[in-house]
Specification:
Elements: E1 2-9, H1 13-24, E2 33-40, H2 47-52, E3 60-65, H3 71-81, E4 86-90, H4 100-109, E5 115-117, E6 159-163, H5 164-168, H6 171-174
Parallel strand pairs: 1-2, 1-4, 2-3
Antiparallel strand pairs: 4-6, 5-6
């Protein structure tokens, strides 16, 4: 099994460092090859130094620059670089649980799904996000509390997975497939 994790970032070096540390603690099932591609969308901070100075033992980490601004450009750059059969996306300010990689991949591997939208919770140490004016807009901040876990109505870029064959069907992304 090959898995590619893609994180797109821009000028968020400090939160990215914490996210990378979190991914470094996740379990990778025996026999799986997992690569982590950090796509730097033209940062002016020390993002490159954070990535290049991070050494993870459970995944292969790569830094890629995407000079054209915009999340779509960064994601497409990541997809061009990705060699995985399953593609996981997360954000540069997320802490993933220890079973994140197998949990996100299992529904796809069992052929129960072609895409998976994982849960995203607000950090408990930021209570303002649970109060007005933010509380009615939680889903705008990628919070998935209102999603039915068995039939999610939307994908959340901070925690989503796809089988490569699904992304190959989307014309703009499909032409970037690495055979």
């Amino acid at each position: 099994m090959t898995v590619s994790i893609i994180i797109c970032t821009r000028n968020r070096a400090n939160s990215l460092k914490s996210t990378l540390e979190s991914i470094g603690q996740t379990r990778v099932p025996e026999g799986w090859q997992v690569e982590l591609i950090v796509v730097d969308n033209n940062s002016s901070d020390h993002t490159a130094a954070v990535v290049n100075g991070t050494h993870l033992t459970n995944v292969d980490l790569r830094y890629v620059n995407a000079p054209i601004a915009g999340l779509c450009h960064a994601r497409n750059t990541g997809l061009r670089e990705a060699g995985g059969e399953i593609i996981l996306f997360t954000d540069d300010d997320i802490h993933v649980p220890g079973n994140w990689i197998p949990a996100m991949c299992q529904p796809i591997l069992s052929q129960g799904a072609d895409a998976v939208s994982g849960g995203v919770k607000f950090p408990p140490n930021v209570p303002a996000l649970s109060q007005y004016p933010f509380s009615p807009l939680r889903s705008w901040f990628a919070c998935t509390e209102t999603l039915d876990p068995h039939k999610p109505s939307r994908m959340v870029g901070a925690n989503m997975a796809f089988h490569r064959r699904i992304l190959d069907r989307i014309p703009i992304i499909g032409r970037f497939h690495n055979p």
